[in-house]
Fold:
Amino acid sequence: MTVETHALLATLTVLAVAVIVRLVRRQVLKAKYTVLWLTVGLVLAITASVPTLLDRVADLLGIWYQPTLFLLLAIGFLLLLSMHFSYEMSRMEKRIRALAEELALLRGPGDDPPDHDRNHEEDGPAGEHPGA
Amino acid sequence: MVRTAVIIPAYNEADTLPGVLAALEAHVPDHDVVVIDDGSTDSTANAARAGGATCLRLPFNLGIGGALRLGFRYAVEQGYDRAYQFDADGQHDASQVSALLAGLQDADMVIGTRFGGDDGYRVGRSRGLAMGLLRRMVGQICGQRFTDTSSGFRAFRRPVLEFFATEYPVEYMESVEALVLAVRRGFVVREVPVVMHDRSGGRASTRNLRLAYHFVRLLIVLLAGDPGRGQRRRTQS
Structure:
């Protein structure tokens, strides 16, 4: 790895870690994602600061083009993560549906559509059957 | 006396709803109509109440399956003995309701079929092809022949209502899935020929590309085995 690439990697890593730390400090992430992203940041930092580490591990695994190892790990990680998010989203959608039903039943038959409600809906991007 | 609920899912159907409610009032005045306002942005809810129906308003659009499920749940909670779905866009004919309900004498669930009726309902070519394929697949899975798997003119006895109140599929083209679910659950499902109108308002809720996507999705769901089993397990946990 040349000095330039190393510098580039280091910069990107510092940026990524900075964003992660910022998100964590503002406490906008759930605890489990905090842990997850902090780990990711740590791994990135280690890989960037010890450039030979990746090469050595790649050699150990018999991967002759070292960046492949990084890409492999990165893609695998992202794939798992997006699968996890799909699962979470499905579960959340199910709960939101149940809540919507519950709300409609609680509102009961006597509830008149308030005007501000409808105005709000017209402002929003929602409209054509998003559920389909 | 047998209490009957009419479940009408409605999404922006304020124009056609009054006519539909009036027709129901004329033909079946002793049935209780509940309109599920599926997040409409027009005055559907007001039209429903003006027409003497009960109206439940969903806070946002859930799609027809979600609206129906709420309707089933409402019917169960209010202690109805049977219920039937009815379209808000004027596709269904209130004069056919008695024929549909008569089918419940020897079945748990009755589907009003557009085919085999007097009016010779016709569909477009690709749609007809898709429906034909669905029909064959459903026939294979159910071990029973259905001529109109996607008809939304259906009546249910209470046990089916209780089942659908929690298990009704909520994805688009849910009617086919629901039919298969009911048969797999061991309910007796039969068809009754009825006359239907062309939709008096709104559009057919299917554009070709979307239809194609959902058709494929449905094939996968049907082929992947019992589409409801996984859901059922998850709801229990």
In short: The domain at 4-224 of chain B is CATH 3.90.550.10 (Spore Coat Polysaccharide Biosynthesis Protein SpsA; Chain A). The radius of gyration of chain B is 17 Å. Confidence is low (pLDDT under 50) at residues 227-237 of chain B.
